[in-house]
Amino acid sequence: MTTTALPGQLQLDATANPPLMRISGDWTLAHFSTLEAQVAAQRTAESPGALDFAGLGALDTAGAALLAEIIGSARMSQLDQIARNLPAERQALLRTVGSAITQCRLDEKAPPPGNALVDVLERIGIASVTFKDHLIGVLGFIGLTLQTLLRNLLRPRRWRLTSLAAHMEETGLDAVPIVALLTFMVGAVVAFLGATVLQKFGAAIYTVDLVGFSFLREFGVLLTAILIAGRTASAFTAQIGSMKANQEIDAIQALGLDPVELLVLPRVLALLLTLPMLTFLAMISGIFGGGVVCALSLDISPRMFLYMLQNDIAVQHFLVGIVKAPVFAFIIAVIGCLEGFRVSGSAQSVGEHTTSSVVQSIFVVILLDAMFALFFMEMGW
User: How far apart are CA 280 and CA 261, in angstroms?
Assistant: First the structure.
């Protein structure tokens, strides 16, 4: 014959002196919700002076936690005096559970309120350390890439021409439409702006010089680099990051191959070759867009437009712009590949590092462009 397990019960005998709490039934996890409701109701009642465990059935740690709450941490040391009919082993269980609950509550105490200034300084310090770590990582990866490039430069058998050609098509040829279209529209906008402002001073003819100078020196290479940073750096990070997540990088290393030589060099060299060509295309497209606006809005014929470009703008302005392209290409490719290698192995990490590579690439491109502008200005170029 089997006995049915009954949930625990609390019965307060207020007539006894001191008031006596009778505890009976099973105090186990199976009845936890019922027992918890009884203990919650008991909090508002008078605290018992003694507890009678004569009717106590099964007991586990879940029930012991509720009983420890009834007893209270202050009276747990007097358990042998206030607990009647409770075996020593169950007293030990209640003391152990009660001690663990007390320690847990002490650990969960709210931290003292912080100082706003200290919090701001802490954030600045964390950001500074993070920036330093990123900078060291980028510089180290640049050194590793240059070392691998110099090591393979005089070893033609190790050149991966097929991979180089594929990446040149991906980073260069496939980007031609978007680069040409965007720079054409920006050239038209610059010409419209110049015509609007310069006409007030009777100098609308100098819109030609404005378009030429801006695209040969700055806009051509800068717009192209930003587009490539958003398009190609993210692609490099996603490609290498997916390989890292699928443990393909580990497989390459297990085969005795160098991931930098196999994955990084073809991408870096492809971008070094294609970005200057895309920059030249952007310059021509932007100037063409400005020429269309000048012809339609200012009645400047294409022949006059080209004549002014040839006479007023020296070739050094073209060189000032085009010389930045390889530097931007190298930095964009390195950052894109490095962020791919930093992927931890999950799809979320791939997305985070892809976003990070785009942000870092655009920031570094604009920063370097500003440094180039200051340098060329000081040199009188």
Answer: 29
